[in-house]
Amino acid sequence: MLPPEASQKALRKIFRRKSIVDIDDLFETLDTHSRMSVFRRLKDIGYMTSYTDAGRYYTLPEIPKFDLWGLWFHKCVGFSRAGTLKATVVELVQSSDAGMTPRELLNVLRLRIANTLHNTLHDLIKKRHLDRQRLEGLHLYTSAQPDRAGDQIKRRIKKVRSTSKPPEYPSTEATIAVLVQALRAGEALSHPSTVSARLVAQGMTITAKQVENIFSQYGLQAGKKTAEPPSAPSRR
Questions:
Q1: Which of 5, 115, 200, 218 is the 20 to 30 A CA-CA neighbour of 224?
Q2: 84-163, CATH topology level
Q3: Confidence check: pLDDT of 236 > 50
Q4: 185 pLDDT more than 70
């Protein structure tokens, strides 16, 4: 085992070279196979443990360049300003404007094994560090503080509703159906809301606004006579 001063120099050297190391690297660097001795030397200079890979990797606090989530990744190994995976999940959920779903957490944390997150969330709910809501068919994890959770749920509902709005212009199939309605209009073209109601009754998903956009795109106007198809040439 290297003496304290030599240990610090050796540790800083290997961290500068590799950025992150595992226990085998540390055994070799410090010339020991005692985990207790390794962590005693690490404690002298300060260190961080990865929240991924079951905490297998280590780095120095000054090495990570954390992103807006407070995370840093090196060769798919993740480190968090919050420390452990549990502390990181709590921090992410607490600081989020609209709570977080498991899929969102997986994407941010870059966890390769979904069960790791599942077990963590289960434990956090059990210990009441977080709360969970069933919302729009999703599990939403929120702050354990009622006021904060209420704000997150309101923002999530608003977010879901805004992203679930139909596009301004519908599918080609729906566009053709609207134009067919226009050709059948005869003397006057019905109002967009009437056209959309007819198509919805036929099992099609389309709004009055979408019909209005199609009318505008093809130069159609409600209340006016639609263009008559050209008559067939007479036979002589």
A1: 200
A2: Arc Repressor Mutant, subunit A (1.10.10)
A3: no
A4: no
